Amino acid sequence: MSLPDFSRPRLFRYSEHQWLIRSLMLGEFRLVPASYYGELVGDSARYDNELVRENAAPSEKVTITHVATSQPIRTIGDVVFRDEVGTNYYTLSFSTAFDPLLFDEFAGSNACLVIHEPEEVCERIHFYAEQFLQRWSGIDGAVAYGREHKYGPTFIKDWRYVIQKEWRFAWIPPEKANTLHPLCIQIGNIERYAEIMPQPPKSVACAG
User: Fold this and answer.
1) Which of 64-78 are b and which e, b meaning 16 or more Cβ less than 10 Å from the residue's Cβ?
2) What contacts 197, CB < 8 A, 6 or more positions away?
3) How far is residue 92's CA from residue 126's CA, in Å, rounded to a whole number?
4) How confident is the model at residue 75 (pLDDT cuts 50, 70, 90)?
5) Res. 171: pLDDT tops 80
6) How many other CB atoms sit within 10 Å of the CB of residue 113?
7) HSE (CB half, 13 Å, CA atoms) of 96?
8) Which residues pair with 145 in a beta bridge?
9) CA–CA separation, 145 and 151 (whole Å)
10) For the chain, is the Cβ count within 10 Å smaller at the N or the C terminus?
11) What mean pLDDT is predicted for residues 17-25?
């Protein structure tokens, strides 16, 4: 069941037109295992370890106390925090920004699916995903960059991805799962709620 706690913004999905036309006409979306992104070594925009989150904080902003003596422990250098999700899970990602730079950020993108009525589309996504992922916990929301998120590490990403302004769907299994395979869902035609925009032409500087 989806549990958004605030209104969803207009959403954008950057990809190849051939895939986005299927999203528009059939409502087809591909749910990808979190582990998949760790395999995309040559894709800097998507490569990430979605199963482990690490964040660093300057030592002067962190207080560490020895449990036995209650004395403070002096730190040298940044303090790294590590948070593990504990299971593989499914994701589906959009952006909350229409930015020409994101066509290049997501290599191969030549079009953008613009969802003007996200409430209807997102609720359909949850409904049809739940037909396959019964008893899984599904939720969607804005990703936090370099800071904590109330939904936990599945909604946290490094600052280097902040340009993406990601809006993420995540489905967590009822029991730990190590291996998952991509899953396609079809939610029906969404032309009433969305449209496809082509990549805008790049400006060319002219010699004066």
Assistant:
1) eeeeeeeeeeeeeee
2) 98, 111, 112, 114
3) 11
4) low
5) yes
6) 23
7) 14
8) 157
9) 13
10) C
11) 98
Amino acid found at 208:
G
pLDDT score recorded for residue 60: 58
Spatial contact of 150 and 6, defined as CB atoms under 8 Å apart? no
Round to whole Å and give the CA distance between 10 and 130: 23
Contacts of 132 (CB under 8 A, 6+ apart): 183, 185
Q: Give me the residue label for tokens 């004395």.
A: 71
Q: Count CB atoms within 10 A of the CB of residue 99.
A: 15
Mean pLDDT confidence for 94-116: 95
87, 48, 90: which is closest to 181 by C-alpha? 90
Domain ranges of the chain: 11-50+85-198, 54-83
61: tokens are: 């902003």
CA distances (Å), origin 200, targets 9, 58, 164? 22, 41, 18
Task: For residue 162, give Cα distances in angstroms to 63, 106, 157, 200.
Answer: 28, 13, 8, 22
Amino acid of residue 8: R
One-letter amino acid of 159: W
Please enumerate in sequence order all residues whose Cβ is within 8 A of that of 112, keeping only pairs 6 or more positions apart, or say none. Answer: 12, 13, 14, 15, 20, 98, 102, 103, 196, 197, 198, 199
First to last CA, the chain: 59
